[in-house]
Amino acid sequence: MFNKFNNDKCNLLNVYFWAISYLKPYKLKLSLVIVCGLVITGSQLIMPKIIQYFIDEFLTQPYTHEFIWLMLFIVILVVLIITFSAIRNIVQRSLQEKASRDMQFSIYSHLRKLGFAYFEKHPVGENLALMNTEVASLQNLYRQLLPWMINNFIFSIISITLMVSISWKLSLIIVPSLLLYYIFGPYLERKASQYGKKMGDERVRFNQKVYESITSIHDIRANAAESWDLANIKNRHKQLNKMMIKTYWFAFWRGTNRRLSYYIGGIAIIFIGSHLTLNSDMSTGAFVAFLLYYFQTMHILTSVVTSITEQRVLMDQAEKLYQFIKISPEVQEEEHTIARNKVQGNIIFEDVSFHYVDGPNVLNKFNLSIQAGQKVALVGASGNGKSTILKLLGRFYDPTNGRILLDHQPIQQLSFKDLRESLGFVFQETYLFGASVQDNILFGKPGASKDEVITAAKAAFAHDFITNLPQGYDTLLGERGVKLSGGQKQRISIARMFIKNPPIILLDEATASLDTISEKEVQAALQRLMQDRTTITVAHRLSTIQDYDNIALIENGKVLQSGSYDELMEQKGAFYHLSLGQKQEGA
Questions:
Q1: By CB distance 3.0 to 4.6 Å, which of 6, 22, 158, 202 could disulfide with 99?
Q2: Which of 200, 196, 14, 25 is nearest to 105 (CA)?
Q3: 310 and 272: one domain?
Q4: Residue 296 lies in a domain
Q5: With contact defined as beta carbons under 8 Å apart, do 444 and 500 qualify?
Q6: Across 523-545, average pLDDT
Q7: How far is CA 517 from CA 365, 405, 486, 524, 584, in A?
Q8: Per the confidence metrics, is the pTM higher than 0.90?
Q9: Mean pLDDT, the chain, as a whole number?
Q10: Using CA atoms, how far apart are residues 528 and 524, in angstroms rounded to an integer?
Q11: Contact at 8 Å (CB) between 82 and 91?
Q12: Rounded to an integer, what distance in angstroms lies between the CA atom of residue 31 and that of residue 37?
């Protein structure tokens, strides 16, 4: 158990050092914040000494030149406090926002590097919660907890030193006051912070449920499940409210315990200090100054404990981000890659085997050779690895055995940028951004001109329906392109490929979800897109691939049959029976 405690403590320290490492590029700004804090703290702590001097020297005397100089000194201190507070506020704001930005961007950049393997295991709601909730919580470390703790720690040291210089006897009262606070304080601080963390977790779950409810609104309405969905949302909100009540309950007692501890100490100081003052062992001004120091210091000291406890619990929460940032991408770019100026489109799969994590082999020594400019179709029953082949070619995953060559070069030796710029994917489900039609086409080539956009749209047979939209190419499509039909979405996707102009086209059942009319329109656009390009198509309808150069029937992760459509039909093998089955279904 002791070793576990030490390991947990060490791990939390690692998390803490990782979190504050984002302040490293801004050391000068952090130093300036601390210096400003010292000046402000020093100016504030001189005030009780001035009050002491005023009471002891001027309260019973007429105004003198010394009094005027004292007032002038107070004005100077106030100006110093205001000036350095303004400087600290500006610099600290810049520091915390830049550190928060760097941390958030590093999380976002890492999220982009993890690739398909990560996103297929972790839902969108989980990643949104990680970005919105966990990152926002950790940003509080830069914005409040760390700067506030540094300033208050400095304040406490200087204040205690001044209290001891006034009366070491009265200063001893701090010890039992802090001990009184420590009887329940750390427990209440820990409980309040723990329930605060649980409240944050429940808020994440509630937000996930709201996200699911919004994204599934069509299915919910279609199945008249509004009451069921609302009941689930209410249940999640009930759990969130429960954690909120417990958090605020312990937060109330945390504050009550803090005030109780230093009020009892304050009563003791008033009782003993009055006795010392009456016996002339302490001046009235010194007693008042000490009392001011005491209440300030006790409030700050207990607040420092609160800050440390909150940071301790915050590190438990930040550990999720720390573990996330330590995840290594399953597919990594090699340190030294070979630059390719032009890709011809020759592709070879050599004894390629692959399986997903903890799953059986999807591909078993898969072999296929594709010449530049050929049109090749992959057909077969679901689950035999057709879409996986396209993922391996795009290096969304790496083969467990074997290799893939592009123009006789292993694709691992190419940079992600060079490899993926040479590939043009058209998936069954096209993602359209909530932007204009033109911006969605420009996704294929961000720097293209308006003329290039129109040319690409015409090539994809999309220009006519685009010009009939309310604002033409400037029409906003809404989230995921809800204003367009399935066929129109696919033609926008094909227009992206025309403007990108890759030498290799990969079609993953691009027309499987379309009706007959839309399929014909999209097929016409695809035929134009495939001209003079290497094309690999995962096909569902065999009628769409009759003119292909080669058709590979995949079964159990291997090529069972290959050849042209006519050759395979003449063989009257597995492909022939598959084709007959589809014709009977169509009939």
A1: 22
A2: 25
A3: yes
A4: yes
A5: yes
A6: 84
A7: 39, 38, 11, 11, 20
A8: no
A9: 82
A10: 7
A11: no
A12: 10
Question: Are 524 and 514 a contacting pair, CB within 8 Å?
Answer: no
What integer pLDDT is reported at residue 60 of this predicted model? 65
CB atoms within 10 A of CB 584: 8
Answer whether residue 294 shows pLDDT above 50.
yes
Q: Which domain holds residue 358?
A: 347-586
Report the distance separating Cα 348 and Cα 403, nearest Å. 8
Residues 60-77 have a mean pLDDT of 77
Q: Could you give the angle at which helices 284-325 and 226-278 cross, rounded to 10 degrees?
A: 150
Question: What is the average pLDDT across 228-255?
Answer: 86
**Neighbouring residues of 509: CB distance < 8 A, sequence distance ≥ 6:** 387, 428, 538, 539, 540
Whether 428 and 319 share a structural domain: no
The two three-digit tokens of residue 146, written as one number? 């760390």
**Same domain, yes or no, for 386 and 516?**
yes
CATH code for the domain in which residue 154 is found: 1.20.1560.10
> Residue 492: how many CB atoms within 10 A of its CB?
25
CATH of the domain at 404: 3.40.50.300
pLDDT (0 to 100) of residue 586 = 52
Tens digit of each residue's pLDDT (9 = 90 or more) over 481-496 = 566 777 888 888 888 8
Nearest of 237, 530, 224 to residue 374 by alpha carbon: 530
Question: What are the residues whose beta carbons fall under 8 Å from the beta carbon of 22, sequence distance 6 or more?
Answer: 99, 100, 102, 103, 106, 142
**CA-based nearest residue to 244, from 51, 374, 236, 532:** 236
Q: How confident is the model at residue 3 (pLDDT cuts 50, 70, 90)?
A: very low
Domains in the chain: how many in total?
Answer: 2
Cβ(64)–Cβ(20) under 8 Å? no
> Taking 70 as the threshold, does the pLDDT of residue 184 lie above it?
yes
> What does the alpha-carbon distance between residue 487 and residue 514 come to, in Å, rounded to a whole number?
6
On whether both 351 and 320 belong to a single domain, the answer is no
| Single-letter residue type at 285 | G
Q: What would the two tokens of residue 460 be?
A: 């994809």
